[in-house]
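Subject: mismatched residue count in predicted assembly?

I count 391 residues in my input, but I want to confirm that the predicted structure covers every chain. Input:
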Amino acid sequence: MLGPLTGGGDVDVNRQVSGLSARVPRPVDYVVVGGGLIGLLTARELRLAGQGVALIERGDIGREASWAGGGILSPLYPWRYPDSVSALAAWSQRAYPALCATLAAETGIDPEWTQSGLLVLDAAEIVPATAWTRRHDVTLRQCNAATLRNLEPALGTAAADVMLLPDIAQVRNPRLLKALVTSLLQLGVTVETGVDVARVTMHAGRVTGVDTSHGHRPAVNVVIAGGAWSSALIQPLGTLLPVEPVRGQMLLLRGRPGAISHIILAGEQYLIPRRDGRILVGSTLEYVGYDRSTTDEAREALHRFALSCVPELARCPIEAHWAGLRPGSPDGVPFIGAVAQTAGLFINTGHFRNGVVTGPASARLLADIALQRRSAIDPASYAIKPRKISA
Ligand SMILES: Cc1cc2nc3c(=O)[nH]c(=O)nc-3n(C[C@H](O)[C@H](O)[C@H](O)COP(=O)(O)OP(=O)(O)OC[C@H]3O[C@@H](n4cnc5c(N)ncnc54)[C@H](O)[C@@H]3O)c2cc1C
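Triage response: the counts match. Full output below for your records.
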């Protein structure tokens, strides 16, 4: 069944959720605020560790940044990021094939993990890319014009000296979201949609739950995974979190399967081929507050980019155009951990442009911290402390 915004041929998860929500009668071990990818993955980690979990979403599940994104399982230019982002990405990249296979087996919904490879049409990046890929043991191949023609015959530009990162994969993020919420319901997580969390409640320096548009929800612990809206919930508790909305617009073209087979990156724009022939064209980076509208300028710029890369896309209709609000953070380093002065309060947000690729590692790390387990990733870089927002 197609939902109203499911231009990518993706099923509306919320039809399955509505009616299944339930009140939480006694303090649940964890309330997770936010039904985006980060909240869903965090709820899953906590539930798999035996915790009682309720997830609260004010809209529909997975209809904000996590739905709007492209699903590339790598930062666009990974060598431009701090090692703390690379560490989360690398852990998640290893985890994704098994996660998607498990979800598909549990739910019958295939998130379409696909190892498309990433072609970078930018010779200026070869030096930093080569150094970074050697240091991180990532495969990189330089390609000349002839190799490129073999790899992607439909490419219009005769770019020389491009790079291929063959191991980079993608997921179809709307399907991943649908599989995750279906799995959570099967695991016994309470999922409430259309419920707005107004504030975190406290007593004697400890979290007691959340006040919502539908009454109080008592909880021993609360995890804020509210994406671009997280700061508003945390600030009243005395912690300034420099997370701000950063708009990104996307186009969806209805292409033919196999027209291109790699994710193609040039400058700040990219093409992502889905298995069914649809091609995502992204994206913009706009600091316009909480305005999720689309613009004609972005539509034209993205379309022009797509046609300049692959001229045959001129024959493909534009099927959809949308915008999402990324949870922007300084340097793209997310905030993952406990809020020191408030017992029982945890944060998992600020994933900026990389929440799909860093999500599984972030969720595991948050659960490790909350449950006082040893973690494979050093938590220090993501600790909750006020940081300055850079443009
Ligand atoms: C155009 C675009 C392209 C992208 N491409 C990629 C990519 O290719 N690869 C990649 O790794 N990342 C990509 N990203 C980034 C990625 O999508 C985000 O980093 C990630 O989705 C953030 O997930 P989230 O769960 O924190 O936020 P969201 O998905 O925005 O979810 C937050 C949820 O919290 C809910 N919420 C907020 N406040 C409250 C409240 N008070 N009460 C109840 N619910 C609340 C919201 O309604 C929302 O559903 C892209 C993003 C965009 C916009």
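The longest strand covers residues 244-254. Marking this ticket as 'not a bug'.
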